[in-house]
Design brief:
By secondary structure, this protein is mainly beta. The protein contains four helices and 41 strands. The strands form eight sheets. The chain has a 22-stranded antiparallel barrel. The protein has a five-stranded mixed beta sheet with strand order 3-8-9-6-7. The termini are far apart.
């Protein structure tokens, strides 16, 4: 049935494109595109630079300048700019969900299924909370990207690129102040050392008092980044980069959700206080604090990452690329699950290596490569530490993940208007783990997984500014384990997750490049998808394989620039995600339910207007909003885990000097102070659930400079 719906939608899109294409061909020659048009955006979704409108995928690209204007300083803030996405807090991790697919537990045995990358280097989940500053762009690719990005990209990929050193002296930065005692500063120095060598140094510091009443979720974050670029302009360049992130604030606490203290009864949208971010339990609520008063717990976060990209032109058409990296991350903090104390401790060490050959001729664009990774992780998660119940609820793992892959992808131009694409990836992954189970018994796991995934597609230019594409691809995530001893009758293996998908899309420009309309329809068939949830009432929370999860939907992205001063953006996404065949080993049937954090509808709109204020500069007025329909935070649809439909509004006003030397602005986010859940669990006292919350209303002023 879903396949038929997909075919109808795809055929309708194709018919629409053919009609529009003739209209475009008639108008494109009449007037050349001028500076009043939308302009071109370059992305690297296919590991090569391409025009966004010529890339056969629904890529959302956000520039670093736009992030600064909106006061966005981390991945979680990007959520408002991406359709059908959730980038949400879980301690110092960021849960990344695209089109209803993601991992909602930050345990070592739960693989990420959406890949996050800095400069082409895969970053583990705890590293995704590194601050964003001096960013070139962010690219979000929903849907499977396993051919080029590997095992953790079965649900999509998020790529972040830093600004590279350049051959000109520069001193730039941002100074911000706002509520919750916000003090934020970024300073970047770019120095050309010689005709072939340049260096770029960036420092970013953020201080806030806690969003929560106890003082929890305060920031004292320092990040330092260094980049070196050697470019002899003779087909050889080396880009080295590294950063250090040091956080010494306080960890966020979860707040109780689903209990109304005024009535003493369940109420889905109720919090314990009128201020949802109040995590205290004083006065009449003291009875709900049997283990003491929730407080702000210290956070100790250290993250060191180094990487490089070496490019060598072997000929006029062939380039060799090598990308090595090293990551070391240590994280230690306490936090409160409502009225229950908990502790999280994890250490990562990771190395990766990627070798690529790429070619570009008149007819053929291709890329082939080898990839290797080695990751060790040591994790200890405890609930009720320091109480008589310490040692009952915990998750302890020491593991090694190692893998190798060979991949390739090629696009061949059969004619000036028609192209075919094919790609494949062979993966071999090995996972080892030891630990102590909830029964206090030691366990171990040692398995290898092998898989070949492929991608087939076609692209057609239906007019000067219209492209249609159709893609079929598969994907996979290696198997993992449940943390208990394996027995002949009860294996601890969690089977690999597999995906088959089909995507059809249109990319259009009209009205002399003033209007852009991109459409994509998709169908995803997930088999043995990892499903997990946290329930504090249980000693053990297993990972299940859902036999079949079906997702289909349509995404429409519109940009309209009626004048040189106005820009309107609108994204509408319908995403129907449902369990089709999911029964747990003990007989619980969850067929027909949506997976966690899978809203059916997401709408995002933005409008900006530039007002000329004379020869000195101009003022940009900007506003945006995001709507999400209701969703649940776990696969069981437990009480207290439902987020009601919501709207969030943000705005900014910025004065830009025509010289480009400075700008001054003000921004406000979550204008209506809307409480929206992030990572949420069936847990707590009194419960039924506890939730991290997205930030409350925040506002600030900003000074930017560039000399």
């Amino acid at each position: 049935m879903a396949y038929r719906k997909f075919i109808v939608v795809a055929a309708s899109m194709l018919a629409l494109a053919q009609g529009n294409a003739f209209a475009q061909e008639a108008s494109t020659d009449a007037a050349a595109t001028d500076e009043s048009g939308l302009g071109d955006i370059v992305v690297t979704a296919n590991k090569r630079e391409e025009n966004l409108q010529r890339t056969a995928a629904a890529v959302t690209a956000v520039s670093g300048d736009l992030l600064v204007e909106k006061g966005v300083t981390d991945l979680r803030g990007v959520q408002a700019l991406v359709p059908s996405a959730r980038f949400q807090q879980e301690g110092q991790s960021t849960q990344v969900f695209l089109r209803g697919i993601g991992s909602n537990l930050d345990f070592a045995n739960v693989e990420q299924v959406v890949s996050f990358n800095f400069n082409g280097v895969y970053i583990p989940r705890e590293g995704t909370s590194a601050p964003f500053f001096d960013i070139e762009r962010i690219e979000v690719l929903p849907g499977p990207q396993g051919t080029l990005y590997g095992r953790n990209a079965v649900g999509g990929t998020v790529n972040v690129g830093f600004v590279k050193p350049k051959q000109e002296a520069e001193f730039s930065g941002v100074l911000e102040a706002g509520n919750y005692d916000l003090w934020h500063g970024t300073a970047v120095v770019n120095v050309p050392i010689s005709d072939t060598l340049a260096a770029r140094l960036g420092v970013d510091y953020t201080h806030t008092s806690g969003y929560q009443t106890s003082g929890a979720e305060a920031k004292d974050d320092l990040a330092v980044r260094l980049g070196l670029l050697y470019d002899a302009d003779k087909g050889f360049n080396i880009y080295f980069w590294g950063y250090v992130v040091d956080k010494d604030g306080t960890a966020p606490n979860l707040v109780n959700k689903g209990f109304d203290p005024a009535t003493g009864a369940y109420s889905e949208n109720a919090f314990l206080h009128d201020n949802p971010w109040d995590d205290t339990r004083t006065g009449t609520l003291a009875a709900f604090a049997p283990f003491g008063q929730p407080r702000a717990e210290d956070l100790d976060y250290r993250n060191y990452v180094a990487g490089a990209e070496i490019n060598i032109a072997l000929s006029d058409t062939t380039t060799f690329t090598y990308i090595p990296s090293y990551l070391d991350l240590k994280l230690d903090y306490g936090y409160w699950l409502g009225g229950i104390p908990a502790h999280y401790d994890v250490a990562y060490e990771q190395t990766t290596h990627e070798l690529r050959l790429s070619g570009d001729t008149d007819r053929l664009k291709w890329i082939a490569g080898l990839y290797y990774y080695h990751m060790s992780v040591d994790q200890d998660v405890r609930v009720l530490p320091g109480t008589p119940f310490e040692g009952i609820f915990f998750n302890n793992d020491k593991g090694i993940k190692e893998g190798f892959a060979a991949f390739g992808q090629a696009t061949y131009s059969a004619s000036d208007t028609f192209r075919v694409m094919a790609g494949g990836r062979y993966s071999s992954d090995h996972a080892e783990a030891t630990g102590t189970s909830f029964t206090l018994q030691p366990y171990n796991f040692d398995r290898k997984f092998k898989r070949f995934d492929f991608k087939l597609g076609a692209e057609a230019d239906l007019g000067a500014s219209t492209m249609a594409y159709l893609t079929y691809q598969t994907g996979y995530t290696p198997g993992t384990y449940n943390p208990f001893p394996a027995t002949p009758g009860n294996d601890n293996l969690v089977k690999p997750a597999k995906l088959s998908s089909i995507t059809a899309g249109l990319k259009n420009r009209f009205l002399d490049d003033r209007l852009q309309l991109n459409l994509e329809a998709y169908y995803y068939d997930y088999r043995d998808l990892y499903i997990q949830a946290f329930d504090q009432s249980k000693l053990f929370n297993p990972i299940f394989n859902a036999e079949k999860v079906e997702i289909y939907g349509v995404q429409a992205d519109l940009k309209f620039k009626p004048t040189t001063a106005d820009l309107l953006s609108l994204s509408v996404s319908y995403n129907h995600a449902r369990n089709k065949d999911f029964t747990t080993p003990d007989g619980q049937n969850f067929n027909g339910l949506s997976p966690a954090y899978a809203a059916d509808w997401t709408l995002a709109a933005e409008y900006s207007r530039d007002i000329d204020v004379g020869s000195s500069g101009y003022v940009r007025l900007q506003g945006d909003g995001r709507y999400e329909s209701s969703f649940y935070a776990d696969f069981i649809h437990n009480l207290g885990t439902r987020q009601k439909p919501y709207v969030k509004l943000n705005a900014s006003v910025t004065y830009f000097a025509n010289s480009g030397r400075w700008n001054l602005g003000a921004w406000i986010k979550n204008i209506t102070d809307e409480p929206v859940i992030a990572a949420t669990a069936f847990a707590g006292i009194p419960g039924p659930a506890t939730a991290y919350l997205e930030p409350p209303r925040t506002y600030g002023v900003r000074l930017g400079f560039n000399f």
